[in-house]
């Protein structure tokens, strides 16, 4: 196990979805219609939460799915089982997206297994709540940026030679980028970088026929919050501040990732969708 994984495990991250109560809802809510038939998708952080729901929905819509994750092997195997139950192929790859060598290796494994890559979903992320900016250590700051934004650069760089005309990239930003979050200074900052990365990468790739968009979820019930240091009080009232008065479920977010990945969104690039329970962010 790497030094990075040692540090992450000390914080209880990434966290087992199997240990959450109630369980997050990942199941697709409707029959597939072949919108991703014949496609190959790579989803980071696909062992649990939003990533699992995206993998499940993509498989239902006809895609084979590469499941990238850090170290939660049991959760990743569950996601692979979900993909395979939809009649699609699954490939699980464990490692740190903040490591360039891992990203290069992961893409090589996807190409070796499937022969192509049509959809890249940069979803993996981590957060570490702190009451005061002086509580954020240099190690934590570097590690949050390494995973949340450096990892997107590294994986996109590795994938770029294999992305052809018609490919799609979907990044996961956050409502915290638009509204701020007093206890998530470093996390929110990475999400601001991700939004700027999405818009700039779209401008960079649009003439190549590659669309780049993002999704900015609000409070969603995944392992990220209960395993990422959120207080019991915060968890007790998690999502209640939204106009809908509740947190969202992963399968309420996944359709946004599907829309942006398929030809339904053929005239959209550089945009952000906001499944956030009704919060108006004007972004």
Question: Would you give an account of this structure?
Answer:
It is built from 9 helices and 7 strands, in the order αβαβαβαβαβααβααβ. It is α/β, with parallel strands linked by helices and 283 residues long. The protein has a single domain, classed as Rossmann fold, CATH 3.40.50.720. Strands 3-2-1-4-5-6-7 form a 7-stranded parallel sheet, with helices on both faces. Helix 2 runs parallel beside helix 3 and helix 4 packs parallel to helix 5 (138-159). It starts with a helix and ends in a 10-residue tail after the last strand.
Q: Can you give me a brief rundown of this structure?
A:
Residues 1-30 are annotated as: Disordered. The mean pLDDT is 91. The protein has 283 residues and is an alpha/beta fold.
Q: Which SSEs are present, and which pair or pack?
A:
Elements: H1 3-10, E1 40-44, H2 49-60, E2 64-69, H3 73-85, E3 90-94, H4 100-114, E4 119-122, H5 138-159, E5 168-172, H6 175-179, H7 185-205, E6 211-215, H8 232-236, H9 250-261, E7 272-273
Parallel strand pairs: 1-2, 1-4, 2-3, 4-5, 5-6, 6-7
Helix pairs in contact: 2-3, 2-9, 4-5, 5-7
């Amino acid at each position: 196990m790497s030094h990075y994984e040692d540090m992450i495990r000390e914080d209880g991250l990434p966290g087992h979805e199997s240990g959450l109560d109630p369980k997050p809802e990942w199941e697709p809510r409707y029959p597939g219609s072949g919108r991703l038939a014949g496609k190959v998708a790579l989803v980071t952080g696909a062992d649990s939460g939003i990533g699992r729901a995206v993998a499940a929905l993509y498989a239902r819509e006809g895609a084979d799915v590469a499941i990238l994750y850090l170290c939660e092997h049991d959760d990743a195997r569950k996601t692979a089982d979900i993909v395979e139950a939809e009649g699609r192929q699954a490939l699980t790859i464990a490692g740190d997206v903040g490591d360039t060598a891992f990203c290069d290796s992961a893409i090589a494994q996807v190409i070796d297994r499937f022969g192509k890559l049509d959809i890249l979903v940069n979803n993996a992320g981590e957060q570490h709540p702190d009451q005061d900016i002086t509580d954020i250590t240099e190690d934590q700051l570097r590690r949050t940026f390494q995973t949340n934004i450096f990892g997107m650069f590294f994986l996109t760089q590795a994938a770029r030679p294999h992305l052809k005309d018609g490919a799609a990239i979907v990044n996961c930003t956050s409502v915290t980028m638009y509204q701020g979050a007093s206890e998530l200074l470093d996390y929110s900052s990475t999400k601001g970088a991700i939004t700027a990365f999405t818009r700039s990468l779209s401008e960079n790739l649009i003439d190549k026929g590659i669309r780049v968009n993002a999704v900015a979820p609000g409070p969603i019930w995944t392992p990220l919050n209960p395993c990422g240091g959120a207080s019991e009080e915060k968890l007790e009232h998690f999502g209640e501040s939204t106009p809908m008065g509740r947190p969202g479920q992963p399968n309420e977010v996944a359709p946004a990732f599907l829309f942006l990945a398929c030809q339904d969104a053929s005239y959209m690039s550089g945009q952000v969708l906001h499944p956030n329970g009704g919060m108006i962010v004007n972004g």
